[in-house]
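Morning, I've got a small favour to ask if you have a moment. It would help a lot if you went through both lines with me. I owe you a coffee for this, so here goes:
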Amino acid sequence: MITDIHTHHVPKGWPDLGWPGAPRLRIDSEREAMILVGDREFRRVQDDCWDPEVRAKAMGVDRQVVSPTPVFFAYDRPAVEAVRAARVFNDLGLEICADERFIPFCQVPLQDPDLACEELDRCLANGHRGVEIGNHVGDRDLDDEGVVQFLQHCADRNAPVFVHPWDLPSGPRVDRWMAQWLVGMPAETHLSILAMILGGVFDRVPESLRICFAHGGGSFAFWLGRFENAWHRRNDVIGTSEHPPSHYLDRFSVDSVVFDERALRLLVDTMGEDRVMLGSDFPYPLGETPVGAVVREAAFLSDEARARILGGNAAIFLGEHRES
């Protein structure tokens, strides 16, 4: 069962929530729409974002984990408004994911841990299988006490968590060449993994927490050696976790969307073949097409490792099978 754990949707029925700067959807045709942030054009999307039949024909795998598009998170709004956004988005997402080939993940108002826990429970009861969260809430990273409270709740509810970068820093140096996506997203994801480790989150949350980071974990795998070296040589500054960084590699997973066999080899060598799952970022233009091509064609992978990455690890992440 080949499973893509990193895909997104946008509901065509997304309403205008009425607050200044709220993300909106401008329907341009039966097949195309434009996501607007206030009056600014953010991203053009097609019907593979909302039409299950179109999506099924294009997805190239047996199943997809279907998560929200992060621009709709509303973490920067008052919590009551973020709850409203989450409820609308999550309920519309269940309509898109009525087909059993689509596995719905919800969003929550992460700026308020109590409301986030309540919305997760509502969604799990309604049919969502897990939750996607952004990698930060303003200046609060994943080691923030409120976020840790929510992650502990996810572990208690046996709900898998998918972490996706969002709300990237902007400025003259990163607003050209799509540098926010090419540099900012990998760096933001790397920073979030550091926060989970150095912030002591993995020392505080149960080992049962299943959490995956998008985009191959960003630049983390490449710089683990530097991270490890700093933990030992400058422990007075960064030694806030109980163990060195390499100790925690079996506490999280990453997706495979790194686009190059050499990068995938490093990722598997660093994380282990049981901690990498097929991901594509479908249906967006910077996603992998065809889905899973790098994993399927990677000469260094054994048949067993390839099967794990293409689907076996996802079954464990989704709680369908236990780790062997």
User: Anything to note?
Assistant: DSSP finds eleven helices and eleven strands in the chain. The chain has a mean pLDDT of 93. The longest strand covers residues 3-9.
